[in-house]
Amino acid sequence: MKTLKNSIQIAILFLLINPAFYAQNSLEGTIADWSNGEVPLVFNDYIAKEQFTMGTISSQGALTVQLDANFIETMKEASKKAKEKAPSGWEMKFNTVASTFGCSDEDNLSYENAGVIFPGLPDLEAVGADGATTYGYLYCSNSRELSTWFNNYGEGNIAKGYYLRWFFAENNASVKGSCNMPTYTGNDDENYMDATVYDLDLQKGWNIIKYAITETFTSQAGKITPSKTEVTRIDSIPDDAEWLLVTN
Question: Which superkingdom (predicted)?
């Protein structure tokens, strides 16, 4: 899961407490009990060796993140700069709808405009004014347990619930169907079916994608993993969403 972290091919954004989604130009919210002063929300581009400020948390805990209406063009410009500092032969590869929502048996999925470019917002980190202090990465889910699980590369136990991700679609597209993958637990021949169900009608511009873990599997060793995830596009952040800063 978290292998996506710090990647400019696939990137994720999660935010904090009491959010509101204002059209498609910004995310705003309030962080409860914030006492660390004003800090930036940054994305670290490890290819270009640059840090980009994409939002702020005010000294009163007000959170603001701008959503770029020309996000794909901005990413393309960033890739040109990154290429100047990247190893020889390096090329930027933008995620598409098909690469983001893929399946080993793609006959089970039905796409419209599968090749549409579909990048996500980067992970944002709250950092101190000294540039060294970190307050954690931002996640949005309906449970701390789930956010912590995601931040820990999918290690540890999972609970039923959902998390949100933000993506920008180059054009309208859709993904329908289910991907079913037999998965071994590492305990001899113990295995289970890991199912992901897609019901996505994507719109040009920004999309909020909800990943709802509706079923789990408990192995003989007691590890709890997702066994069914339902992926949908939603119009607004649910009322029970919990916005968290999570540290490694």
Answer: Bacteria
